[in-house]
Amino acid sequence: MTELEKMQLGLSYLASDPELAKARTHAKLLCHQFNLADPTTPHVRIKFIAELLKLKGKAYLEPMFYCDYGFNIELGDNFYANHNLTILDVCKVTIGSNVMFGPNVMISTATHPIDPLERRITESGRPITIGNDVWLGGNVSVLPGVSIGNNCVVGAGSVVTKDIPANSVAVGNPCKVIRSIEAK
């Protein structure tokens, strides 16, 4: 099994693997080109994102955008991200349609061993799923393995460590559901 296959399955893998290093460099180049593109030509900027990510429709991202690989990220239709989105996509990140992210959102599938000797060598990850019609406020962090259901609002500054059920408003560190949203 290759290090890429291990990585995408959420198993321990060697990030120093040459194939993974090459893929990260390619993603960094496309992010760099996107981030430095002329802001008056959004159609040019989105071409870099379309080459990097799996788009299911239209998407608009403000610069700066950073990711590890890009090919593990799937965006639904009508996606919007404000400035400074970071997605560490060692495992699959699935984001639904009609989703909005405030500034400085961080999505991280990556995790590391607790043991310091193991941490020097390997890392792993767990996939993240964000449903349809979700709004993440500014400075929200979503940690490995989390699922956020449809129609959720996650308040600014929250650290999402556990799944958030559909139709919820959740806030805090750690993020907790404070009320449900009535469907209309």
TrEMBL record:
Record key words, sorted: Acyltransferase, Repeat, Transferase
Name of this chain's protein: Acetyltransferase
Keyword Transferase annotated: yes
Spans through the membrane: none
PANTHER family: ACETYLTRANSFERASE YJL218W-RELATED, GALACTOSIDE O-ACETYLTRANSFERASE
Species whose genome carries this gene: Pseudoalteromonas prydzensis
Keyword Methyltransferase: no
Entry similarity comment: Belongs to the transferase hexapeptide repeat family.
InterPro entries, per the entry: Hexapep, LacA-like, Mac_dom, Trimer_LpxA-like_sf
Record-annotated Maltose/galactoside acetyltransferase domain positions: 4-58
Gene3D superfamilies: Hexapeptide repeat proteins (2.160.10.10)
Highest taxon of source: Bacteria
Pfam families xrefs: Hexapep, Mac
Listed CDD domains: LbH_MAT_GAT (cd03357)
Enzyme Commission no: 2.3.1.-
